[in-house]
Amino acid sequence: MQLTKSNYFSQEANRHYMSVSQFKSFLPSYGGCEAQAVATLNGTYERSSVMAFMEGHYVHAWNEGTLDEFKADNPDLYSSRGATAGQLKSNFQHCNTMIEVLENDPLVTKALAGEKEVILTAELFGIPWKVMLDSYNPAVGIFADLKALKEIDGKWWNKDAQAYENFLDHYGYTIQMSVYTEVEKLATGREQWLLPHMVIVTKQNPPDHEIIYFDYEVIQQSLNIVKNNIERVKAVKAGLAEPVRCEKCEYCRQTKKIQTIKHFSELSLY
Ligand SMILES: [Zn+2]
Which InterPro entries does the record associate with it (predicted)? Predict the structure, then answer.
């Protein structure tokens, strides 16, 4: 299947290819759920569109140089009622502030330079993967991913590891960067990995921003995490194993039927 910008996020593309977000959507440790992932792939469940998603798209459209088209294509960005009718909704006005922060930092401009929204595919762990690089600059040996996040400094409780983790581990961003790096290497036949960078701007007021790079060691470690989990994901996606329900996500809550009555002590916080 030939991927383009218009079919990259399609159901068909997601069924044919694995992507990092799809992989994570199967894993409870990254907030995923096998039952929801399968229902999403076969079209019986559609995630309710979240505002935060649009804010990310808004900032990405700026990076791609297509913000004007994006605004024209999405009238929902504008307020339709009251005194503010016709103006950008306040959260998207704040996106403009975030964009200004990025535009005014020369190192960000440097990190985000290169070809935009580059689609690459390669076979990894026995299945085809697709990636989209926000900014691709192989001439200087880097690529960059742009993220609009709530905050950088928070800590998240990892129930499996019984420990706090930072946003990189919590959202599986090291996994994303490692798969992107490996797919780029395989797709181009390059001998060495590029150095993945992440440009982050927060939704705080005023926004914080940061550029983070990843080294070969974390790329290898993160690829191992994928390797250790991919066979289960492949089996569930192919319908060879029954998807497990988490009973917590949006899909599971919508389709929940109580199987057993819980003892009160099962409701542990940690
Ligand atoms: Zn679930």
Answer: PDDEXK-like_dom_sf, Put_RecE_PDDEXK-like_dom
Give domain 11-48+105-266's CATH architecture: Alpha-Beta Complex (3.90)
Which string of DSSP letters, residue by residue, matches 232-270? HHHHHHTTSSPPPP-SSSHHHHHT----SPPPGGG----
Expressed in angstroms and rounded, the spacing between residue 25 Cα and the centre of ligand 1 is 10
**Confidence band of 81 (pLDDT split at 50, 70, 90):** confident
The model's pTM: 0.93
- CA–centroid distance, 206 to ligand 1, in Å, is 35
Distance 243 CA to ligand 1 centre (A): 10
Q: Cα(102) to centroid of ligand 1, in Å?
A: 36
250 CA distance to ligand 1 centroid (A)?
7
Would you tell me how many other CB atoms lie within 10 Å of the CB of residue 7? 14
Q: Is the dihedral of CA 63, 71, 58, 129 positive or negative?
A: negative
Annotated domain spans of the chain: 11-48+105-266
Rounded to 5 degrees, φ, ψ at 124 are -140, 130
Which tens digits make up the pLDDT trace of 139-155?
A: 999 999 999 999 998 89
The rounded Å distance from CA 240 to ligand 1 centre is 19
